[in-house]
């Protein structure tokens, strides 16, 4: 069966299945090369038959037609690769096909892998994520009105008159999580296999965080290591010392990750830099420059992870000593990472005119993205059909 994934058509059912998720994978020759490296033929066939929500072993036996013992081996292999999540609930284990992004592409670089040609995979992923512009994967990921991720503000950089809610506070998100773990940074690890290092000196290890049930899965499968809340807060402080931007799920309840992102390696920030200015939901704040204090030294330009600070329009005709910087308000994430770079104290965070409010939880976010992309009805129909099937089995 090893020849099957060399045939382009063999991957079509898998791609079709992945593309029923809120964020799918745009088909291309590079995508098929990536999938052929990650999925063996049996895994691709099983993945294509997964329902849109979690399924029990018995349900997957019925869907795939495979003997239970054979299916168990395939599911175990897929879980070890991060292609499927196994979720123990009481005496039952549920299985969920992991999306491509955010999902198994990131998981493939959350540890050093001897079973994958990671250098080749890194090159293919970097090319794939940038090909075809808005018509390619970048458009699929960043193009919805409802971003999958959002930035968090450095709460110590906002004025005493301002306030943030618990879901806007990185420290509170960490403290509220019931389980914590740290993992390799997908973006910097991928870049390291391309022979590149972070220009901000951010490490690959001990910098990106996963939370809750997803973190438990990654720890079980050797893709993350558990940490205490106190240790996670220390990592957060280290990230801020490096001027990294905090990014999490665009939801209010139970975010599953907290990444600490740089301007040179992060694929999320690359989307903003490519022109998807609403691709990451913004904080309730906006960086603002005081022209009277700014000496246009360039420190904030180098510190801005969204690359949204430049020479002020009104200062272009002036001598260099009289120039000042300006923030592009349409692009600024409001993270506050730039403020600590300014020795003149010319940068402040001011409240936005309207305060962004993320969806309550992951289901609410996914429903909005699915509706936006015209994919909601198939998702609801699949859930209804499976609910009826489960009721009939209990009779």
Walk across the major sheet and give the strand order.
4-8-9-6-5-7
Overall shape: it is: elongated
- The span between the termini is 39 Å
Q: In percent, how much strand structure appears in the residues?
A: 5-15%
Helix content: 25-40%
The largest sheet, given as strand count, sense and whether it forms a barrel, is: 6 strands, antiparallel
Strand element count: 13
Instruction: Give me the number of helical elements.
Output: 16
SS-derived structural category: alpha+beta
Q: Which value, in Å, is the CA radius of gyration?
A: 22 Å
Any low-confidence stretches, pLDDT <50, length ≥5? 1-5
| Chain-averaged pLDDT | 93
Helix and strand run: HHHEHHEEHHHEHEHEHEHEEHEHEEEHH
Pfam families: Fer4_7
Keywords: Iron, Iron-sulfur, Metal-binding
InterPro entries: 4Fe4S_Fe-S-bd (IPR017896), 4Fe4S_Fe_S_CS (IPR017900)
GO molecular function, one term: metal ion binding
Descriptive tags:
single chain; 14% strand; alpha+beta; 3-stranded antiparallel sheet; disordered N terminus; 6-stranded antiparallel sheet; 395 residues
Task: Characterize the structure shown.
- Keywords: Iron, Iron-sulfur, Metal-binding.
- One of its GO terms (molecular function) is iron-sulfur cluster binding.
- It comes from Halochromatium salexigens (Chromatium salexigens).
- By secondary structure, the protein is an alpha+beta fold.
- It is built from 16 helices and 13 strands.
- The N terminus is likely disordered.
Could you outline the blueprint of secondary structure elements for this entry?
Elements: H1 12-18, H2 29-38, H3 41-48, E1 55-56, H4 57-64, H5 68-81, E2 84-89, E3 92-97, H6 100-107, H7 118-130, H8 137-142, E4 149-152, H9 170-176, E5 180-183, H10 186-192, E6 208-211, H11 212-220, E7 225-226, H12 229-241, E8 245-249, E9 257-261, H13 267-273, E10 285-289, H14 299-303, E11 309-311, E12 325-327, E13 347-351, H15 362-372, H16 376-394
Antiparallel strand pairs: 1-3, 2-3, 4-8, 5-6, 5-7, 6-9, 8-9, 10-13, 11-12
Helix pairs in contact: 1-3, 2-7, 9-12
Keywords: Iron, Iron-sulfur, Metal-binding
GO molecular function: iron-sulfur cluster binding; metal ion binding
Pfam family, one: Fer4_7
């Amino acid at each position: 069966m090893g020849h099957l994934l060399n045939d382009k058509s063999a991957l079509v059912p898998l791609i079709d299945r992945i593309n029923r998720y809120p964020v799918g994978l745009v088909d291309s020759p590079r995508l098929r090369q990536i999938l052929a490296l990650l999925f063996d033929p049996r895994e691709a066939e099983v993945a294509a038959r997964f329902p849109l929500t979690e399924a029990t072993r018995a349900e997957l036996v019925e869907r795939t037609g495979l003997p239970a013992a054979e299916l168990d081996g395939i599911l175990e292999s897929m879980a070890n690769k991060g292609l499927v999540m196994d979720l123990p609930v009481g005496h039952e284990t549920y299985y969920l096909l992991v999306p491509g992004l955010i999902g198994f592409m990131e998981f493939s670089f959350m540890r050093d892998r001897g079973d994958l040609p990671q250098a080749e995979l890194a090159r293919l992923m970097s090319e794939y994520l940038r090909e075809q512009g808005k018509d390619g994967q970048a458009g699929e990921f960043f193009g919805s009105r409802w971003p999958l991720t959002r930035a968090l503000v450095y709460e110590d950089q906002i004025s005493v008159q301002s306030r943030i809610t618990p879901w806007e506070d990185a420290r509170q998100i960490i403290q509220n999580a019931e389980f914590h773990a740290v993992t390799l940074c997908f973006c910097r690890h991928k870049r390291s296999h391309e022979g590149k290092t972070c220009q901000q000196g951010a490490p690959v290890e001990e910098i990106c965080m996963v939370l809750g049930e997803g973190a438990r899965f990654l720890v079980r499968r050797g893709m993350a290591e558990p940490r205490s809340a106190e240790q996670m807060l220390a990592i957060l402080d280290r990230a801020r010392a490096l001027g990294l931007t905090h990014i999490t799920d665009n939801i209010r309840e139970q975010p599953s990750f907290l990444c600490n992102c740089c301007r040179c390696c992060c694929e999320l920030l690359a989307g903003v830099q490519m022109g998807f200015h609403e691709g990451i939901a913004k904080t309730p704040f906006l960086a603002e420059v005081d022209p009277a204090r700014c000496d246009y030294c360039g420190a904030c330009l180098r510190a801005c992870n969204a690359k949204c600070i430049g020479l002020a329009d009104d200062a272009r005709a002036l001598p260099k000593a009289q120039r000042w910087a300006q923030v592009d308000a349409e692009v600024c994430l409001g993270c506050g990472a730039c403020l600590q770079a300014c020795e003149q104290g010319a940068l402040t965070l001011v409240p936005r005119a309207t305060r962004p409010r993320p969806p309550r939880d992951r289901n609410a976010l996914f429903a909005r993205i699915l509706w936006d992309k015209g994919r909601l009805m198939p998702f609801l129909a699949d859930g209804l059909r499976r609910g009826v099937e489960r009721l009939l089995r209990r009779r």
